[in-house]
């Protein structure tokens, strides 16, 4: 599906960028959400960690 393709593209970017990896780890630890949920929130929030965490906790 289109959503699966979008997620695969985001996960590819996450695997290459150490800054995004760090944000992924922090957001996962802070929220307890899955890596897929965290990556989607980070992407939707333009990789702004604070905004992504707030979105995940709402």
How would you describe this structure to a colleague?
The protein is an all-alpha fold and 58 residues long. It has a domain at 18-57. It is 83% helix and 0% strand. It is built from four helices and no strands. It has helices at residues 2-16, 18-31, 35-44, 49-57. Helix 1 crosses helix 3. The longest helix is centred in the N-terminal third of the chain and has 15 residues, at 2-16. The termini are far apart. The relative contact order is 0.15. The model has no long low-confidence stretch (mean pLDDT 87). It is found in: Cytoplasm. This is UBA domain-containing protein. InterPro entries: TC-DDR_regulator, UBA-like_sf. Residues 1-21 are annotated as: Disordered.
Brief digest:
This protein has 58 residues and is mostly helical. The protein has helices spanning 2-16, 18-31, 35-44, 49-57. It has a domain at 18-57.
Rg is 10 Å
Report the strand count.
0
- Helix % is over 70%
Query: How far apart are the termini?
Result: 26 Å
Low-confidence runs of at least 5 consecutive residues: none
- Element order, helices and strands? HHHH
% residues in beta strands: under 5%
Can you summarize the main beta sheet?
none
Structural class: mainly alpha
Shape estimate = globular
Overall pLDDT = 87
Number of helices: 4
